[in-house]
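re: ur question from earlier - yeah i can do the single chain one, its not a big deal. heres the input i used so u can compare w yours
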Amino acid sequence: MFDVGMASSSGKRMKTMASKRKEKEPEQPHSSRFLSRKNEKHFKVVQDRRLLMERKVGMIPNFAPQFGEQLLGNDWGKLATYPTPANIAVVKEFYANAWKIGDYPAENYLGYVRGHAIRYDPDSIKNFLDTVWAGEQCQFALCMEEGTDFDGVERVLCVPGGHFQRNRTGSVVNIRRTDLTPLAKYWMTFSHANIQPCSHVSDITLSRVLLLYCAIRNLNVNIGQVIADEIRVCANTTNSKAPLGHPSLITHLCKIARVDTSAPPFERPRKAIDEAYYRQYYGGEEAAQPVPPRRTRRERGQAQNQASAETHEAEPFQMRDMYMSLIGAQLQSIHSGQVATVEMIVGMYDTPPAHRWTMEEFHNVVAWPQQQVIHKLCEQMHDVVIVNVILSRMCMSNVNELICEVLSSRVFVIECYYFESMNYFAQVFYD
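and the output i got, formated as tokens:
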């Protein structure tokens, strides 16, 4: 009797466990495109997210020979060359179905596109990238879990004086892009395009810093695991405006799974990271001169070595930094113009007409750095003029002129909206 009871009880438990497993099994596809109605509904959210395309990366032996050595040393050669046009519809359907709903999908790193299961697990990605992973300890994962010597990271990635930014508790947060060495900046651009997609380039977060550190030091990195985790996080983010990463890779994986990816629309990879890219963003004319051959320590003293390193570390993004400084000066010019205009308006009716500002006097106060923007503010100012400039972007170099025509016995409120393709007044309201 005891054995029967135990068997009966065991049978009940087996039924219960079986029913639970059945509940966790993935649903049958809702249609040929979506796993469920919820995935189909989520597709509407995914449709509004843009693709963050990868970049092809070229070797630059004349400027940074270490990059090619480190790339090949990590066995990441194909990671730099695979990007091709991505099928926009296929990528967005992939991300809509990769979105995890409760316990679904039951298997991690498994997507679904048009009736085909798409595996984006670490092994599938490594097979596509032709990389070999022998199961060693991933040093990047170890650094993320246990931390590392942050002073050592700074010495590898930063120019002299560069360092981690820390919060109030003293914990490291990020490193500013301007604090990185030329080589680290080049790696950052590559990583932000093909490994850990990111459109924010003013600084680099801790996890991305540690990946760069491991790559430059040729430490073991399970690149398939890193990319698979990035895709999964991207698919399940709550940020409805976050761009969709790895679109070219996903298109390749879908093609391997026999999904038809031949129908447009397509999106091309972004501008290649190559010698021309390096010349444009890493030092202007100075970067166009090849780096002289390396000499041994016997041929140069330690002081000369340090001076040479500082010279080349000053090159990256020189033109970009100058451009940002110009923007700051232009913003200051706008502020000065607003202050001068208000002062002129306030004192207008107490100032004899003969002493009103001329355009030359006005320009002397609010001169526009390098490019004259305000050609003519007022030819005659008989009434009050209020000018409110709303800029949609921080680039003012395309604004050609700002002209206010003032008629007698009128008060104008002029709203100027600046967009990339329009340099004119959008609306004029009359009281």
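The first strand starts at residue 55 and ends at 57. not sure if urs matches, ping me
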